[in-house]
Amino acid sequence: MARIRSIHPAIWTDEAFAMLSMGARVLLFGIWTEADDHGVFEWKPTGLKMRIFPADNVEVSSFLEELATFNVVRSFSHEGREYGAVRNFCRYQRPKKPNYRYFMPDEFR
């Protein structure tokens, strides 16, 4: 379920964020709305494409690779499913009533 998220002003000067292409930046903001309150999301490029870029002819897989290359997101598997975790998610998002829907590996906390 998508959530309303705020864009923290400090994100614009985050070095990793500044290195991203515009499409990868938009994907990151879209992932924020899809992620749980730890910043964990399902690593499903087709599903992310349908929810974040429904009217655009873009390749979400390449944007995910770019986000991973710049260490903005990290992928992991849990119980046979693929997930991703957003770096510094809790630095930029502070929900009042956190809801953790997905597993988060200890090394990602």
Protein architecture, described:
This protein has 109 residues and is α+β, with helices and mostly antiparallel strands. It is built from five helices and three strands, in the order ααβααββα. A three-stranded antiparallel beta sheet has the order 1-3-2, with helices on one face. β2 (73-78) and β3 form a beta hairpin. α2 packs across α4 (60-69). It is globular.
- Report Rg: 13 Å
Report mean pLDDT, rounded to a whole number.
Answer: 87
Q: What's the helical proportion of residues?
A: 25-40%
Biggest sheet statistics: 3 strands, antiparallel
**Strand fraction band?**
5-15%
Contiguous uncertain segments of 5+ residues: none
Global shape: globular
Question: What is the number of beta strands?
Answer: 3
Instruction: Going across the biggest sheet, name each strand in turn.
Output: 1-3-2
The separation of the N and C termini measures 22 Å
Annotation keywords:
globular, 109 residues, three-stranded antiparallel beta sheet, alpha+beta
Summarize the structure.
The chain is an alpha+beta fold. 36% of the residues lie in helices and 14% in strands. It is globular, with a radius of gyration of 13 Å.
What topology emerges from the helices and strands here?
Blueprint: H1 15-18, H2 22-34, E1 40-42, H3 45-52, H4 60-69, E2 73-78, E3 81-86, H5 89-92
Antiparallel strand pairs: 1-3, 2-3
Helix pairs in contact: 2-4
